[in-house]
Design goal:
about 425 residues; alpha/beta; UDP-n-acetylglucosamine1-carboxyvinyl-transferase, Chain; about 30% strand; binds uridine-diphosphate-N-acetylglucosamine
């Protein structure tokens, strides 16, 4: 197993390009199950979760060629309709195969994902939505089995779940007639999936709003698509630079996807600018000097502050000149990083859904452990800003969501290396 060794206290300077979005690429790759024709997906990050998705598609019967940042998904043999536990347990998003497979073949089976480090994360909204379209459900051996010929419907989600919205949009894309999803999640990744489904031949309106309409077709065709930039990766590097100090440019970043973070960064004292190239966005730049002002945040569905940047924000606020509150409204237990940050000198008092962070003048390097992707990112942010050396263990969590984070940060001047633990 690998670990990261970071010698902190150096400012970050320079320019890097951001990668394509992991959370957009995952459902888009899975949506290729909706057609037997070849699909080409560009700007796909090379990450562990993407490799798991590729394996999942191969297990189900696709041929997948990953060249550079482009993934070609080709027909191979008749598709299977079962996602095995071995893959679902590595990546919960595997459950997204249910919608497209069920809609196309009248049957789909997937291992139920268990809870995880950040919360219970049930999939009831996915299943209830598919039931509203006509699926019959039973469970066997920890797998959920769905059967039935789906019909279009009007579905109102109990909660604006990102994954459930995606699952239902994919199912609806293969069903003739119009399906309406109310209280849909509005994340940019959903808009991107909507564009891909439209490229396959479905008619999609309102993706990115709380009311998505999909008019599906039983004959979807192949398509080519370019994945949007990763707003969480971008946000992580912005926060890292704010915490360590310095000035960084992130080419290709999309400021419209990061409104809540950019406003919080500005209030904390960072200078943030959108870079323009011929009228369109060319990225973002950030400059920061000295300790931040405390800025309280509360995680909300998009366009609110993203839960995936809550942990890095906490690391940043550990260095603020004063006290801030961090409220986690999306997941039940997403504060595991607080105790690790405390090992570096942070002062964080956690109650059920809120953490009060009292800024300290300096963090100190320490051996710490990542408990999930973004908790790992938070430890990197803290270690970059801290005096002395830190070791971050369980790097495999971080590798699920960040493409070669150590080389990106080294290019920005960080002293960081990967080593055998
Ligand atoms: C996606 C993102 C994840 C991000 C999250 C919230 C991917 C691959 N992952 O996860 O990085 O943190 O959105 O922005 O895109 N819930 C239920 N029942 C359900 C579904 C969800 O109760 O059937 C609850 C969850 O437990 C959670 C909340 O709804 O508390 C939000 O979850 P959801 O939006 O579904 O997140 P994911 O799609 O799993």
């Amino acid at each position: 197993m690998d670990k990261f060794v970071i010698d902190g206290g150096r400012r970050l300077r320079g320019a890097v390009a951001v990668n394509g979005s992991k959370n957009a690429a995952l459902p888009i790759l899975i949506a290729t199950l909706l057609t037997d024709e070849p699909c080409l997906v560009d700007n796909v990050p090379r990450l562990r979760d993407i490799r798991t998705t590729v394996r999942l598609l191969e297990t189900l019967g696709k041929r997948v060629v990953f060249r550079g940042k482009t993934v070609m998904v080709l027909p191979n043999r008749r598709l299977r309709t079962r996602a095995p536990y071995e893959l679902v347990k590595q990546m919960r998003a595997s459950i997204l195969v249910l919608g497209p497979l069920l809609a196309r073949f009248g049957r789909a089976r997937a291992a139920l994902p268990g809870g995880c480090a950040i919360g219970l994360r049930p999939v009831d909204i996915h299943l209830k939505g598919l039931a509203a379209m006509g699926a019959r459900e039973r469970t066997e051996q920890g797998d959920v089995i769905l059967e039935g010929a789906l019909k279009p419907g009007r579905i109102r989600l109990r909660l604006a779940s990102v994954g459930a919205t995606e699952n239902l949009m994919m199912a609806a894309a293969a069903v003739e007639g119009e399906t309406v999803i109310e209280n849909a999640a509005r994340e940019p990744e959903i808009e991107d999936l909507g564009r891909f489904l439209a490229a396959l031949g479905a008619r999609v309106a309102g993706a990115g709003t709380s009311r998505v309409r999909v008019r599906g077709s039983a004959r979807l065709h192949g398509a080519r698509h370019r994945v949007i930039p990763d707003r969480i990766e971008t946000g992580t590097y912005l926060i890292a630079c704010a915490a360590a100090g310095g000035g960084v440019k992130l080419a290709g970043a999309e400021p419209r996807h990061l409104g809540a973070l950019l406003s919080a960064l500005k209030r904390s004292g960072a200078e943030v600018h959108a870079l323009r190239a011929a009228g369109s966005s060319a990225g973002l730049s950030i400059r920061m000097k000295g300790r931040p002002r405390p800025v309280s945040i509360r995680t909300r569905p998009f366009p609110g502050f993203p839960t995936d940047l809550q942990a890095p924000w906490m690391a940043y606020m550990s260095l603020a000149r004063g006290r801030s509150t961090i409220r986690e409204d999306i997941f039940e237990r997403r504060f595991l990083h607080a105790a690790e940050l405390a090992r570096m000198g942070a002062e964080v008092a956690v109650s059920e859904r809120a953490a009060v962070v009292t800024g300290v003048p300096e963090l100190r390097g320490a051996p710490v452990m990542a408990s999930d992707i973004r908790a790992g990112a938070a430890l990197i942010v803290a270690a970059l800003a801290a005096a002395g050396e830190s070791e971050i263990h369980r790097v495999y969590h971080i590798d699920r969501g960040y493409e070669r984070i150590e080389s990106v940060l080294r290019r920005l001047g960080a002293r960081m290396r990967r080593a055998k633990a």
